[in-house]
Amino acid sequence: MPFAPEDIYWDHMCGRGPDGHWHGSFTVHVRSSTLRPLGLHPDQPTSKATGPSPPGWWHAAAERRHG
């Protein structure tokens, strides 16, 4: 893994949703100084989209599969 333990951390949130089921989510945090050498920092052009967004049918198909 390219990250040192002190350069990455995560938060976990969980609780009951309006439907009564338990839901959880993770948020991962990585220091920007760690991302910069990998070309992933927002100031670097490689972190930006370089092509067009997929067509609308592609998004609809993905939502049907995972919705």
- Count all strands and give the number: 2
Question: What is the helix/strand order?
Answer: EEHH
Question: Roughly how many Å is the radius of gyration?
Answer: 17 Å
| Strand order within the widest beta sheet | 1-2
User: Taking all residues together, what is the mean pLDDT?
Assistant: 81
CA distance, first residue to last residue: 32 Å
Oligomer, anyone?
single chain
Helical proportion? Answer: 10-25%
Can you count the helices?
2
Describe the structure concisely.
With 67 residues, this protein is an alpha+beta fold. The protein has helices at 32-35, 56-66, and strands spanning 8-16, 22-30.
Topology:
Blueprint: E1 8-16, E2 22-30, H1 32-35, H2 56-66
Antiparallel strand pairs: 1-2
